Amino acid sequence: QVQLVESGGGLVQPGGSLTLSCAASGNSFTFNARGWYRQAPGKQREFLASITRGGSPFYADSVKGRFTIARDNAKNTVTLQMNNLRPEDTAVYYCNAARVIDGIQNDYWGQGTQVTVSS
Questions:
Q1: Closest CA to 35 of 84, 74, 86, 93
Q2: Each residue of 37-53: pLDDT tens digit?
Q3: Is the CB of residue 7 less than 8 Å from the CB of residue 18?
Q4: What is the DSSP secondary structure assignment for residue 89, as one 8-state letter?
């Protein structure tokens, strides 16, 4: 059974940095894409960044230039380096992993980790 476990969340002051990590287990395959999403109270889950199996990153405009996604296929991990954090970045951050089989995408999710940006 595939499991994704996030870590690295916490409380940080505006302008500070955090690095989130997501470890996958239970998969005997390499995911097609790994990504990060977040959900603030009262809002829908929002795409932040994704990275292909080959290492090509994609970012939402809201985090471009501040967040960096990276993956290590050998270690089955993906990280999200977050710089210059703002209060509006406060949310629960979720790790995602996608596997495409016969054109159908299967998504896996972590349980989420809280990030709070506040002075």
A1: 93
A2: 999 999 999 999 999 99
A3: no
A4: G
User: In the numeric block, which tokens belong to residue 31?
Assistant: 């995911």
* Tokens of residue 66, six digits: 């501040």
Length of the chain: 119
For residue 119, how many other CB atoms are within 10 A of its CB?
8
The DSSP 8-state label assigned to residue 67 in this structure reads E
Residue whose C-alpha is closest to residue 49's, from 30, 32, 63, 28:
63
- CA-to-CA distance for 1 and 16, rounded, in angstroms? 36
pLDDT tens string for the chain (119 positions)? 889 999 999 999 999 999 999 999 888 788 889 999 999 999 999 999 999 999 999 999 999 999 999 999 899 999 999 999 999 999 999 999 998 889 899 999 999 999 999 99
